[in-house]
Amino acid sequence: KDNYFELTFSKYIEKRSLKDAIFISPSLNGNIEIDWSGHSARINFPEKLKDSTTYVVTIGTDLVDFNNKNRMASSYTFSFSTGSKIDKRIISGKVYDEKPSGIMIFAYKKGKEDPDPMKVKPDFISQAGNDGRYKIAGLAAGDYRVFAVMDESRDLLFQPGQDRIGMPYKDVSFSEQDSLFTNLNYFLTKIDTSAPRMLNSVMTDKYHIIVNFSEPIDSTYIRSVNFFVYDSTAKKRIPMRYAYKGNTKPTEIVLVTGQNIPKENIVYLYADTIKDQS
Which positions ≥6 away from 158 have C-beta within 8 Å? Predict the structure, then answer.
């Protein structure tokens, strides 16, 4: 009934880290305010809570103590309800990573459209601990999609250019009788969203061209039909006879022209339908 909850810790806490480590689901509009008294902190809600709603508070592993900057070994979660019952369904699993502590778990209540973690902030949030294990509690019956994200900027959105992400192998569906879904596990990966670029090309002799790309190319696209030279002086297109990887650097390939190219002419090399290995 009050507009706050209180936390007590075993030692003095680095105050800024607590503000970054508190996650409340469903999310609230505005920023929480924290009043400190020794080892205790009173967290004040920025708005009136919704009626008949289960709220889940997670204290994540970004929390550190004041003296030694030790992180919590695992996130701490508790639930409360503004109605007559508390939703108690739980999703748990593990993130397999070299340093899993602090990896965010984004859970979305599914509706008519699939949730897009690049555009929409999660409905429920948790964090993986030192051992990679996580738990999302306080869930109602329904369908959920859950991602693991190394959220570098802590903006609760997945940014492909900087964040790594783990995809779920399936969605989680809770009926009224269900209470627990376990082993929703993740490996994180960096999604490559940048297209490969042709950086330069060098004719080693009158028939061979070495082409260098910005990243390794998918070998299935290293075909002669994907390349041609346009002789702008003679105004004609010169096809490639062969295209192959050869004994070159990872980002290089070799092209063999179908005919001699006059060295005094102005020519352009075109590459079409090229994809990287990712």
Answer: 106, 117, 118, 147, 149, 151, 165
